[in-house]
Amino acid sequence: MDNSTRDLDPQGMDYYQYEADQRGLQCRSYRRMMHIADLRPRNPSDYYESLKDWSPFPSFKAPAKGPIRKSVGISLGLRIISLFNKDASARLDQLKEQAEAEYQKEVQAAREFHNSREKTHYRNQEKQHQKIDDAHDRMKHGDPLQVATYFRTVMAQDDFSTDCDNRYAVEVERVTYDQASQKLSVLYRIPNRDEILTFESFRYDSDLAEIVPTPVDTKRQQEQRIKVARKMLLRSMILIYASDAYDLIREIEVTGFLHYFDPSYGQYHKKDVLRVCMNRSQYAETDFNNVDVDLLFAHRLKAKESAGLYSKNPMELIDIHTEQKKAPPAPKKKAQKEKQTSTK
User: Fold this and answer.
1) In the Cβ-directed half-sphere of 107, how many Cα atoms lie within 13 Å?
2) Distance CA 142, CA 151 (A)
3) What DSSP character marks residue 336?
4) How far is CA 293 from CA 85, 96, 143, 301, 338, in A?
5) Which of 213, 236, 266, 336 has the most CB atoms in a 10 Å sphere around its CB?
6) Which of 116, 187, 184, 117 is nearest to 150 (CA)?
7) Exposure class string for 274-297: b at 16+ Cβ within 10 A, else e
8) How far is 158 from 11, CA to CA, in rounded Å?
């Protein structure tokens, strides 16, 4: 496209490059604060209220008169004849009275049935509400199942992006809670390489007629992907603590796993490749608006990470739970016996 035909902004800047620059600014800003961007903590009371059935019972609808009128003998033919014949007209009036009487009985029966079902509906609602309230009360007192279910829901509803465009498909594989230690353990999918946008800047591609990221060298791609994975796990821990209205959590352990296709098996596999723990004191002492996430992971949280994450093929990575066997120490050489000297 000829530059002279392109739209210009008021300052004379090329419009397409201006849009590309804006895209870059937005992505850098979001990526920098990804661990807290648009974070929406939940409240247990709201969560349990959302589980309650508040649906109204349908209002009463009277039955149709047509079937009853037919059942007593009111037909189209009789109605037509009644227009010209007094006896037929009298007969029609008689049948109408009979039909109306039977219809009122049917309406009454239908209304009684409706009222009975309505009472049952609201009675069942009350029982369901009571069960939810009981579950809420157990959660307040640290019931492991209720605590785990609540925080799993909190995480599953989180909304963020790893490519600065689409919502990430959150997968919470497992959540467990130990009431004695107040530790919450989470198994959480981290994105594969192709789910993470890597970029330094953006440009307008005239052939594709769209704004695209400029190429990034391999080392920088790996660094950006690891940052995204770390910020995802940090985000999940911040969200959990911020949603803990009853102070149930003393420590969180989040393990990130990759879900990838392994051609040697011909099916998908999961591998734990990143793990981090944060206690409540560490959470309270950290300013997440200004924290350096990489230093936080390295020096304070002591995160464990599979070597080569995002640089190696997932099949080549070693699961963080697998301890590499150390070669047994070489046996100590026996001290050489002192040579005996003898004189013959």
Assistant:
1) 10
2) 12
3) P
4) 96, 83, 32, 10, 61
5) 236
6) 184
7) bbbbbbeebbeebebeeeebeebb
8) 40
Report which residue type is found at 36: I
* Distance, CA of 31 to CA of 37 (rounded, Å): 9
pTM over 0.85: no
Q: Which has the closest alpha carbon to 149: 170, 135, 162, 159?
A: 135
Helix ranges (DSSP H) in the chain: 15-32, 44-50, 66-71, 76-81, 86-140, 144-156, 218-242, 280-284, 293-295
314: nearest Cα among 248, 245, 265: 265
Task: Give the whole-angstrom CA distance, residue 252 versus residue 65.
Answer: 66
Give the residue carrying structure tokens 């049952």: 120
Dump the DSSP string for 206-259.
TTTTEEEEPP--HHHHHHHHHHHHHHHHHHHHHHHHHT-TT---SEEEEEEEEE
* Structural domain boundaries in the chain: 157-316
pLDDT category at 341 given cuts 50, 70, 90 is very low
pLDDT digits (tens, 9 = 90+) for 247-295: 999 999 999 999 999 999 999 999 999 999 999 999 999 999 999 999 9
Amino acid at 276: V
Summarize pLDDT for 27-63 with one digit per residue, the tens.
999 999 999 999 999 999 999 999 999 999 999 888 8
Q: How many CA atoms lie within 13 A of 50 on its CB side?
A: 9
Taking alpha carbons only, the member of 309, 305, 315 closest to residue 274 is 305
- The position carrying tokens 């993470």 is 196
Structure tokens at 235: 């985000």
**3-state helix, strand and coil shares in percent for the chain, rounded to the nearest 5:** 45, 15, 40
Beta bridge partners of 213: 202
Tell me which residue of 161, 188, 193, 155 sits closest to 276, measured CA to CA: 188
For residue 126 the two structure tokens come to 């009350």
